[in-house]
Amino acid sequence: MSDPINAQFRPRIFSGIQPSGGLTLGNYLGALKRFAALQGGEAETIYCIVDLHAITVWQEPEQLRARIREAAAAFMAAGVDPAQSILFNQSQVSAHAEMAWLFNTVARVGWMYRMTQFKDKAGKNSENASLGLLAYPALMAADILTYQATAVPVGEDQKQHLELTRDIAAKFNHDYGVTHFPITEPLIEGVATRVMSLRDGSRKMSKSDPSDASRINLTDDADTIATKIRKARTDADPLPGSMEGLKDRPEAKNLVNIYAALADETPDEVLARFEGQGFGAFKPALAEVAVSALSPITARMSDYMADPAQIDRTLADGADRAAAIALPILERTKEIMGLLRTRN
Ligand code: AMP
Ligand code: TRP
After folding, report:
1. Does 35 share its domain with 173?
2. 274 and 325 share a domain?
3. Do 320 and 295 have their domain in common?
4. What is the DSSP letter of 239?
5. What are phi and psi of 76, to 5 degrees?
6. 216 lines ligand 1 (CB under 6 A)
7. Which residues bind ATP (predicted)?
């Protein structure tokens, strides 16, 4: 349900991905594939490689630089077209960091401590986490609201951060008596908003999981993909005729959802075909679908990676276009807050 306030803003979609490791099938199905599909609609699409978020935990500088380019290659290989969308890296548009500071004064400390991602990433010794890791959601709100974005496609794990973005927008509008920020809608849709680990159906597939067998990386070759799917944890029962029957079988449910998302079918359509069959039949079929969906992406990614200078030019052009939208909104925000402007 869209907030009535949002009718005052032009439809604009914003989303971001951290360049903190190789991207996975979870990132592709939960984010990249949907980013590409949202292009060319009513809303302008802006996609960001959030390098300032990545450095909230330690990143080796040389490796970070490579991963930013790799993320850009993955966006484009997955179908994000820099001519139709704005594609850039966050640190090149200083409005993000500046807006984040303004939001640090709007958001409350207690909101930050409640974030489950902070608790997960900070672990037991949270006193030793970077201050940036705690403030991370204020920067994410800045990413979104510096463009007055009305909708944000993400996976399920980002729901809490988007609620906090809405809280910051509402508190700002309320405190200053304005309708300056939209109350951004999360777009968490489809069967692949939470792709689970191939080794443990209760954990999300993640680029930071120590076990490489738990995930499919966008850089995995066909043999590796097939092997990982063959070894994926499952049970010995045959597949039922509909998703109802998979309620208590998380690993089986995950593989069926992955198949459906890759093949652009519903999980029930997939099960209607495989009803009564076991994983001995299902897994090779899934591997085939996965390889035929992912191999062209992997190939395009390495083509893009072969020309880093071209990637840098694309990102620089994106940053210029992003800054042109962000700066007037940032300036207006400062003006609303009473920060004196002394130069033009
Ligand atoms: P991150 O890799 O944490 O920067 O996440 C980038 C985007 O991918 C976000 O929209 C996440 O919600 C999404 N994402 C990450 N892992 C998964 C997963 N296992 N299933 C679905 N979406 C995911
Ligand atoms: N926090 C998001 C993640 O880990 C990445 C992110 C940063 C983001 N800024 C954003 C996502 C703005 C959507 C919109 O996945």
Report:
1. yes
2. no
3. no
4. P
5. -70, -40
6. no
7. 18-20, 26-27, 155-157, 195, 204-208
Query: Which residue among the candidates 33, 204, 253, 283 is catalytic per the annotation?
Result: 204
Task: Look at the alpha carbons of 320, 329, 116, 110 in this order and tell me if their dihedral is positive or negative.
Answer: positive
Domain coverage including residue 221: 212-303
Q: In terms of domains, do 48 and 182 share one?
A: yes
φ, ψ (nearest 5 deg) of residue 151: -145, 145
Half-sphere exposure of 187 (CA within 13 A, CB side): 16
Same domain, 216 and 88: no
Sign of CA dihedral 222, 300, 154, 217: positive
Q: Are residues 170 and 313 in the same domain?
A: yes
3-class DSSP assignment, residue 46: strand
Which residue type does 9 have? F
The pLDDT tens digits for 229-275 are: 999 999 999 999 999 999 999 999 999 999 999 999 999 999 999 99
Point out which residues pair with 223 in neighbouring strands.
none
**Cα 45 from chain centroid (whole Å):** 14
pTM beyond 0.85: the answer is yes
Coil/strand/helix, residue 90? helix
User: Count of domains in the chain?
Assistant: 2
pLDDT at position 2 over 80: no
- Annotation: binding site: 18-20, 26-27, 143, 155-157, 195, 204-208
Distance 337 CA to ligand 1 centre (A): 34
Q: Stretch 96-120: mean pLDDT, rounded? A: 97
**Which residue has a Cα nearest atom 9 of ligand 2?**
140
Which of 55, 80, 140 for mutating ligand 2's site (highest number of atoms within 8 Å of CB)? 140
Per the structure block, which two tokens stand in for 48?
A: 């960001």
